[in-house]
Amino acid sequence: MPSVENKTFGEITIGDSASTERTLQAGDVRAWAAAFGEGGALSGPGESLAAAGIVTGVLTALVGSALPGPGSSIRAASVQIKGALPIATVMTARLVVREKRPDQGVVVLDGQCTDPTGQVVATAILEVLAPTTRQRLEVAEHRLDGLIERCRNLKPMLTGVVHPCSADALAGAVEAAEAGLIKPVLYGPESEIRQVADRAHLDIAKCRLVATDGPEDSAQKAAMAAGAGEVAALMKGSLHTDVLLHAIMQKDAKLRTGRLISHCVMVSAPTYARRFVVSDVALNIAPDTDQKRDICQNAIGFARALGIDLPKVAVLAAVEMVQTKMPATRPPHCAPFCHHLAREEHREHESGCGRTSGRARRREV
């Protein structure tokens, strides 16, 4: 994991500088404008609070990550907007040390933001209390890296990898094993898996291999192993989803629980500040009210297992407006579910959320 290191007050010299680049989107400015109660243009010289907020955020982030870096504390900041912020193109932000105040431990920084042509769109002055001791801060390269860090002290999970007969599928299992997340058991035609590993230069020497005759046999043997407790989880390889689910749903596999099976995906979008879970976009085509409840509760358990202690639930349809040909948008269809969901939430709140918490705990295993 990459890291950032600070400069202490004693190490900083006048003229030291740091810079970063950001590409703003129109939605970013609109979000800031909404936060400040502005409903007008994207940005304008000297007038837009949204533009001032964005510039302040970019420059203060640069203070915390580079100059002086971790351990800094901003005492004062003033920003002047001189032109429209560039949209969908690169904006360069730069800080330069103008002054040091030894009696206060404060450094004064000149800030500047420019568009791709070099035109200055904003200036700033920041007074920063610089750190006095060296600090190093590890920073995730991707916002989902934090999930791997949460598992760092956990034992690898014995995982059945079902038919990993493509380079991508096999690489996913190998990389997860190298990260200490799983101990893979590979279910598939042995010769085919070894050929894929050789071509992709993947080391599967530490992986147990269970030979099968094809995708259906891989799915059946993996599902039976999961039902017997021989593996703790299943990981889909390069077989069709319906083949895997058919094996999982067989009574002999002993994996059916009476609860609806649903699909969840966690999304980390670069243009949205938080991760979010979407469900169900793969398995249940036209769920009824009880099935929607199960889908919702499965998603809540999934989110809690990934560290979101209090998930917020939004019930969505494919479009925003009521459409007569889309039953999910019509009040007779969506209102009962919302009412049912609220009733379930109230009941679980009164009981200390024990039932949902218990389901969440089971999903963490």
Strand content: 15-25%
Structural class: alpha/beta
Helix-strand string: EEHHEEEEEHEHEHEHEHEEHHH
CATH superfamily of the largest domain: Hotdog Thioesterase
**Number of separate strands:** 13
- Average pLDDT for all residues: 85
Give the terminus-to-terminus CA distance.
Answer: 26 Å
What does this entry look like structurally?
The protein is an alpha/beta fold and 365 residues long. The protein has three domains: 3-136, Hotdog Thioesterase (Thiol Ester Dehydrase, Chain A); 145-253, Isopropylmalate Dehydrogenase, CATH 3.40.718; 265-364, no CATH class. It has ten helices and 13 strands. A hairpin with an 8-residue loop joins strand 12 (265-267) and strand 13. The longest helix has 20 residues, at 331-350. It is globular. The two termini are 26 Å apart.
